[in-house]
Amino acid sequence: MPGLSRQQLIAWSAVGLVILLIGANYLRGQLSAPASGDEAAAVTAGLKEDKTIAALKVHVVGAVTNPGLYEIAAGSRAADALAKAGGPTPAADLNQINLAAKLADGQQLVVPEKGTAVAAAAGTAGAWGAVGSGASGAPQPVNLNSATLEQLNSLDGIGPKTAQKIIEYREAHGGFKSIEELFEVPGIGPAKFDQIKNQVVI
């Protein structure tokens, strides 16, 4: 069989090179193909889980510029939540708060006013973890602008529904300016007001 000419050798070499390039592209496509089925679902679930733990929701109330519900990064401290709420008002007593305390999702941070002691209601320590404990002994008056649902519910003649209405009124009107504003809350009349007027402050 006669030997291949120079032109034939070049042609066959070119054909071989094309075949190699096609094979390399095919392998590259297989390696970079997106995960399918369970693999894709697992990746999606992982992303959702990371997003869930990446942010906390904290309720900041009391003597702050803009009380409300805020979303902050996981691992944040009480000082970060306070900054999100616009910082303390001039009446705030920051000595009662542990500003370095780490916050948890669903926690409530209460910033008390000067002259008002803050004490956690029984069974609500988890929601008050960033707040300094109040004075022990005689029950402290409940601050209408910072009290939790449980604290309001502890007032004489105030049940869960009325306590919730007090909180709704507080959030809708930017807080109470006087305890007499309780008359504006549905379900609170003169008799009920007389029961609690000495148990609340603003």
What does this protein structure show overall?
By secondary structure, this protein is an alpha/beta fold. Among the domains are: 7-50; 141-202, DNA polymerase, domain 1, CATH 1.10.150.320. The protein is built from 6 helices and 5 strands; from the N terminus they run H-H-E-E-H-E-E-H-H-H-E. Strands 2-1-3 form a 3-stranded mixed beta sheet. It has a two-stranded parallel sheet with strand order 4-5. A hairpin with a 5-residue loop joins strand 1 and strand 2 (68-73). The model is unreliable at 47-52 and 119-138 (pLDDT under 50).
Set out the fold topology:
Blueprint: H1 6-31, H2 38-54, E1 55-62, E2 68-73, H3 78-84, E3 108-111, E4 142-143, H4 149-153, H5 160-173, H6 190-196, E5 200-201
Parallel strand pairs: 1-3, 4-5
Antiparallel strand pairs: 1-2
Q: What share of the residues lie within helices?
A: 25-40%
Ranges where pLDDT stays below 50 over 5 or more residues in a row are: 47-52, 119-138
CATH class of the domain at 141-202: Mainly Alpha
CATH fold descriptor of the domain at 141-202: DNA polymerase, domain 1
Number of strands: 5
| Order of secondary-structure elements | HHEEHEEHHHE
Order of strands across the biggest sheet?
A: 2-1-3
* CATH architectural type of the domain at 141-202: Orthogonal Bundle
Instruction: Report, as a whole number of angstroms, the end-to-end distance.
Output: 109 Å
Helix segment tally: 6
